[in-house]
Amino acid sequence: MSAPLPAPAEAGDPDFAELLAQRPQLSAHALDGLCLEGVPLARLAEAVGTPCWAYSAGTLRRRYGALRAALKGAGLDASIHYAVKANDNLAVLRVLAAEGAGADVVSEGELRAARAAGIPAGRIVFSGVGKTEREIRLVLAEGIFQLNAESVEEIDMISSVAASMGQVAPVSIRVNPDVDARTHAKITTGKAENKFGVAIDDAAALYARMAALPGLRPIGIAVHIGSQITAGLAAYRAAYAKVAELVRALRGRGLPVERVDGGGGLGIPYRDEIAPPPEALAGALAGAFKGLGLPVMVEPGRWIAGPAGVLLARVVLVKRGATRRFVVLDAGMNDLMRPAMYDAWHGILPVSPGALHAPRSPADVVGPVCETGDTFTQGRALPELAPGEVVAVLDAGAYGASMSSTYNARPLAAEVLVEGDRWAVVRDRQPFEDLLARQRIPEWMG
Ligand code: LLP
Question: For the whole model, what pTM was predicted?
């Protein structure tokens, strides 16, 4: 049974009820407290320990399905290649593989994860500015669907590796359209000064050159302008219009173009952002490409996985500082790096029924890592939160565990997949022995 929640928190911050209303995978119950699908998070934290990540399989499926329906609804012949970097847990990948998802990978490790989860190579795109010869050889041997090349240097490298294997690599050129996606500078990728893609003005000549190389077959154009895009669809439309113009120019020169890759980047509301719905992205893709009669690919990561996950952490202690209340968690920036790296805002909810309904006052929520940047939030309206209380950091399903480190010699946290009222540990907490296992002291030191 759901209990009513007290409202409003600090100005600008959504209150608990608003956070829950936007996240159907989460609910607050009078007895069980905060639940992810049918699983009480307090019980999960007790059984698995903290910090720990919990992912909702239903949410992954629901969001993948909504995106697929939006693309279909816009009349597109579209394929979805989930960006593995967002969350590379095998069970998460398996949920999406079972839905028919392809993958966008950027390393040998991601390729191995996608393949191990059952995503066929024929649905995998290999992107990234620094593909090594070894990786190119591997993806070609696997029979990859497409490589997105980001420079003339890389094109030559792919051609010579493929030719040495007696293969012809299917390659799209990733263009840099020089548009501003109006997102955080560290995740803007489509401006001229960014390291990604080739200048769109050089792309036609490069495409023609590719067609003449022995180990290559140019198959299309790819573009990705940034991540966590919430400032409307204008940047997408501008980039897609440039790509469509390029496709027409290539065809005009008699160069075949088989498909376009519209990238990822669709943002989600962490705080109060108005994120465009997938129908809007589908509309932008259809507006630019439907007339060209081309299949369209997308590479979403965050939009699918972000809202599906929470990070569970326990309050170690509450420190009354000179001017502030510090709630110190057992999770830190080594677990969830986003606040430290991008000043990201994440919802934080206590999981116990009592704390969900208690009066609130401002608190800084921090981790145990020895850096001031190890701060999840400042001045957030939160209840008292005694030591031992568990909190859930919301929207941590994308770029959470996948960006974790063992900084401060803190083992990687456990990961759990939730499905209805069932749950399973899908990655064990890293044992301390692991941290030392591959290190050695040189013999000469005795
Ligand atoms: N395709 C390419 C070529 C990409 O570079 C990326 C993300 C994606 C697809 C997926 O983008 P998404 O749909 O997830 O926005 N660590 C940052 C985000 C980095 C995104 C990098 N590239 C964060 O936590 O906000």
Answer: 0.96
The whole-number average pLDDT for the span 423-432 is: 98
| H-type alpha helices, 290-421 | 302-305, 338-342, 353-356
Give buried/exposed letters for 217-228 (b at 16+ CB in 10 A, else e).
Answer: ebbbbbbbbbbb
**What is the rounded CA–CA span in Å between residue 204 and residue 188?**
24
In the structure encoding, which two tokens stand for residue 142, read together? 């696997």
Q: Report the distance separating Cα 322 and Cα 397, nearest Å.
A: 35
Q: Please confirm, yes or no, whether 370 is among the known catalytic residues.
A: yes
**CB of 364 closer than 8 Å to CB of 375:** yes
- Give phi and psi for 38, each to the nearest 5: -95, 15
Tell which atom from ligand 1 comes closest to the C-alpha of 306.
14
Would strands 375-382 and 361-366 be described as parallel, antiparallel, or unpaired?
antiparallel
Per-residue pLDDT, averaged over 340-358, amounts to 95
For residue 229, the model assigns a pLDDT of 92
DSSP one-letter string for 174-207:
EEE------S-GGGB-SSTTSSSSEEHHHHHHHH
Q: What pLDDT is attached to residue 7? A: 42
Say if residues 105 and 142 touch (Cβ distance below 8 Å): no
Provide residues with CB under 6 Å of ligand 1: 83, 86, 104, 127, 187, 189, 224, 227-228, 263-266, 299-303, 338, 342, 398-399, 403
* Cβ count near 158 (within 10 Å): 25
Residue from 31, 212, 322, 370 carrying the catalytic annotation: 370
Q: Is the peptide bond before 51 cis (omega within 30 degrees of 0)?
A: yes
Residue nearest to atom 20 of ligand 1 (CA): 227
- What the block records as the tokens of 315 is 């309050």
Q: How confident is the model at residue 2 (pLDDT cuts 50, 70, 90)?
A: very low
Q: What is the pLDDT of residues 4-33, one digit of tens each?
A: 444 444 567 999 999 999 999 999 999 999
The set of residues, in sequence order, having a beta carbon less than 8 Å from that of 258 and lying 6+ positions away, is 219, 220, 294, 295
Phi, psi (5° rounding) for residue 308?
-75, -15
Report helix, strand or coil for 33: strand
Dihedrals phi, psi of 36, to nearest 5 degrees:
-105, 120
Average pLDDT score over the chain: 95
**Ligand 1 centroid distance, CA of 226 (Å):** 7
pLDDT number for residue 181: 85
Q: Quote the tokens at residue 146.
A: 């497409």
Question: Does an H or E element contain 425, and which?
Answer: strand 422-427
Contact call for residues 165 and 140 (beta carbons, < 8 A):
yes
